[in-house]
């Protein structure tokens, strides 16, 4: 559900629920924002205001964390999120070729979302598992030692899971 379709009262209730799971401690802010992003697929401004209210923290502090970490996005992202590491260890193992392949196949540039909202592609400087490089994450799942040939299988897995969940929703 996107924030645009969620009434403000429900939004605050949802945020209160997430904050309640961790407690309104500043040290829990990153985990709270991760859950908020998981729910909305990005960090909408209204949700950040609701987090500030629920945690009784200044909005500037919430924005400070939300904009500091690359894992957070303030823009809507696709239903499927592909992230290619282009940090040094992955770069020397041809990560740029993986990015080129995904950009060509998806018809978008890194940092963009496909017109149908299905896939967002981004690059990051390090995913913290350099030994697995070149490394790509698809919806949070790590695909290590990535090659151009493996990209199509990965995307097939990603979109197949999507089709399975759509079938399940249609059957419900
Ligand atoms: S440089 Fe790619 S995971 Fe560290």
Mean pLDDT: 89
The domain tally reads 2
- How many alpha or pi helices? 7
Class inferred from helices and paired strands: alpha+beta
Q: Rough shape? A: elongated
CATH topology of the largest domain: Glutaredoxin
Can you summarize this structure?
With 172 residues, this protein is an alpha+beta fold. It is built from seven helices and four strands.
What does this structure look like?
- This protein is of the alpha+beta class.
- The protein folds into two domains: 3-68; 80-171, Glutaredoxin.
- Helices cover 51% and strands 10% of the residues.
- It is built from seven helices and four strands, in the order ααααβααβββα.
- The protein has helices at 8-22, 29-40, 45-55, 59-68, 88-91, 95-106, 148-171; strands spanning 80-85, 119-124, 136-138, 141-143.
- The chain has a four-stranded mixed beta sheet with strand order 2-1-3-4, with helices on one face.
- A hairpin with a 2-residue loop joins β3 and β4 (141-143).
- The chain is elongated, with a radius of gyration of 18 Å.
- The relative contact order is 0.11.
- The chain binds FE2/S2 (inorganic) cluster.
- FE2/S2 (inorganic) cluster is lined by residues 85, 87-90, 126-130, 133, 135.
Please outline the helices and strands.
Blueprint: H1 8-22, H2 29-40, H3 45-55, H4 59-68, E1 80-85, H5 88-91, H6 95-106, E2 119-124, E3 136-138, E4 141-143, H7 148-171
Parallel strand pairs: 1-2
Antiparallel strand pairs: 1-3, 3-4
Helix pairs in contact: 1-2, 1-3, 3-4
The chain binds FE2/S2 (inorganic) cluster.
The site of FE2/S2 (inorganic) cluster has 12 residues, from helix 5.
